Amino acid sequence: MLEQENPSQRFEPQQTAVVNGKKEKDDFSPKTLAVDILICFIAALLVAASLFYFSNYNHFAPGGVTGFASIVGSLVADALDQDMTVWMSIFMIAFNAPIFLLVAIFVSKKTGIILIIYLSFQSLLLYLFQYLNSAYGLPYYGAFAESGKYYSPENNVVFAAIGVGVISGLGFSIMLRRFGASGGTYAISSLIKHFKPESNIAWVSFIMDASVVIFAMFAYQSGTNAVISTLLNIFIANMVVDYMLRGVRSGYKFEIVTDKPDELSLELMTKLGRGVTALRAEGMYTHKDHSLLICIVRNRQVGEFLKILKNYTATFTYSCKVNEVYGRFEVKKNLKHHIGTKKK
Q1: Which CATH class is domain 251-338?
Q2: Using one digit for the tens of pLDDT, what is the confidence trace for 87-127?
Q3: In the chain, N or C terminus with fewer CB closer than 10 Å?
């Protein structure tokens, strides 16, 4: 079974499933909840670590609601001459918790609860990292002299943006693959979708991230560095999320029109180890009967696939990218015996 990506799916919040006109009940079994909480902790640990180590002390912000919490926390900390990570963890709860509660009430009780647990872990871990820094000298990546005693001339704010984008993107991916949700932007999108199901909410993520970039430009004193670093970390985080959601087992689907389906299928299956499906096809120019073969191969097998195809005349193919392949068919030991055999 194939799963092909719809570009708009990434921004579409998952609603509670409806079966036979009734909402499907959330799974609150102890075993499932234990796994869910563990996954929330792992995802929150990755995101919080990336923010503390790379972002918080280098004058740029992550995307979404967390980005607003980071900017406001930084401004308040500067005004009070205090550490910004503590204030960021406070504003993360202040900004996100009401939204997640609304999600629990109007959209999905379990999703809202899971997001609150994830947010709580993330805020507590940020506070823990700051405590470990002040008490035991837990280091962070300082790219500016203002970032404190961990500043080094060899550090680069671009590397910091890449670091937070990659690591936080992994955390977001874990949440999205398990729960279909990863933070405040999702929650806002799901609420809009609940009250206005016909609306296209792809713009929500764009507006949130664009607003963070604009505010970062004025809030931080590093000028264009803040803008470029914020854009870069948002872009990389989105790239990591997209890659992880597509799956590491991506490949290409080839559809081949040929007059030699048995020979070509046998060679593809024996040399590439990939299954082939055959359909009947008619050429509308000549009205001749042909076979349409469908074969899915890994990225690394595309070159070998094309080499095999060159040996067959009167053959035409086109391909498209597929995200992930599920399922496994029974492998026949004697392929030659089964190729071309038809059921009576």
Answers
A1: alpha beta
A2: 999 999 999 999 999 988 988 899 899 999 999 999 999 99
A3: C
